[in-house]
Amino acid sequence: MQALRFTEFGGPEVLHVAELPDPQPTADEAVIRVEAASINPSDVKNVAGQMDWTVLPRIPGRDFAGVVVSGPPEWEGAEVWGTGGDVGFTRDGSHAELMTVPVDALARKPQRLSFDEASAVGVNFVTAWYGAVETAQLTEGETVAVFGISGGVGGAVAQIGRALGARVIGVGRHKPEPDTPAAESIDEYVALGPDTPAEIRRLTGGSGVEVVYDAVGGVTTTAALAALARRGRLVALSAVGTRTVSVDIRELYRNETRILGVDSAKLSVTDSAHRLRKMLPYFESGEFKPLPITARYPLGEGGKAYGAVAANIAGRVVINPGKA
C-alpha cells in the first residue's frame, strides 16, 4: 500500500509517500480501506513534533472514513468512520490507503454523509461532545458561550448545544459565515474583545452563562471566567498565545466556579467510536452537520494538503488516498 509517512519531525516537507506492506491485522483487529481522511491542526502539530507521545516512524492522520476489507464477517464491506488520540501518534493513522483498528473501534458511518463529509467529523465532534455533554453536563434551558465559534470544535459545540435545548452564544473575532452550521446554531453572536464579558452578561440579564466552552484558551481565559454565572463551568481544551493566566482565587471560590480540562487526545480510537455511535442519529437526521470541505488532495499531494492546514485555510481539508 501507499502511505504518507514521516521519520523525523518538521514542517510538511518531512512527509513523503512510502510504499509499505499491507497491514496484517491480529485476531482483534480489522483492516479499513481509507476512502477519505481529513487533516486536523493537531495532525500538523504532530508532524512538527509538538505531541510528545508520538512514536516514529509514523503514518499520521486522526480522522477517517472507509470500508472494512478484512475483519469479522459481519463487518466486511461495512462503511465506517472514526478518529482517535492514538491514531497517527502511537499507532499508524489514516493518511494511507489502508489502516488497522481494533474491532471494538468499528463504527458505522452515517448513510446521509459521503465519505469525505464523514471524514471531517471526528476530532471536532468527539471533542465537542466529550467537553459539552460528558464533562460540563450542559442541559436543556442552560446557556453556553462558545469561544472560537467559527472553528471546527466551536461549530460542533454550537450544534450540540442547540440539540440539547440550550441557548447558544457564539463568541469570536469574526462572525460565522452565513449558511454554515455554526451560524445556523447560535442564538446570539458576541465579538471577541475587551467588552466580551459585559456583553455576555447583558444578554443574560446580568447573571452570566452556566457554561463557557473555550475552544481558544490562553488569551481568552480571563474573559471566559468573567462571563460565568454562579457555579458556572469553564471547559478548557486549548491555550493560544499564552499557557499561563492570572486567576483571582477569591473571585473563583466566591463564584463557586468550576474549571474543567478536556483533552481528546486521551480518547483512543475505541473510546472515540463509542461517542460517534451516540452521535450517529443526529447525523442521520441532519441535525448535526460537518464543517464545509474547502479542498481535496490525493495522497501524492499530502505535503501540500498539510501546508494548507498549517496556513490556517478556512474549512476542512481532505485527503483521498485512492485517487490520483
TrEMBL record:
GO terms for molecular function: oxidoreductase activity. InterPro entries: ADH-like_C, ADH-like_N, ER, GroES-like_sf, NAD(P)-bd_dom_sf, Zinc-ADH_QOR/CCCR. Keywords: NADP. SMART domains: PKS_ER (SM00829). Residues 10-319 form the Enoyl reductase (ER) domain. It holds the Pfam family ADH_N. PANTHER family: QUINONE OXIDOREDUCTASE. This is Alcohol dehydrogenase.
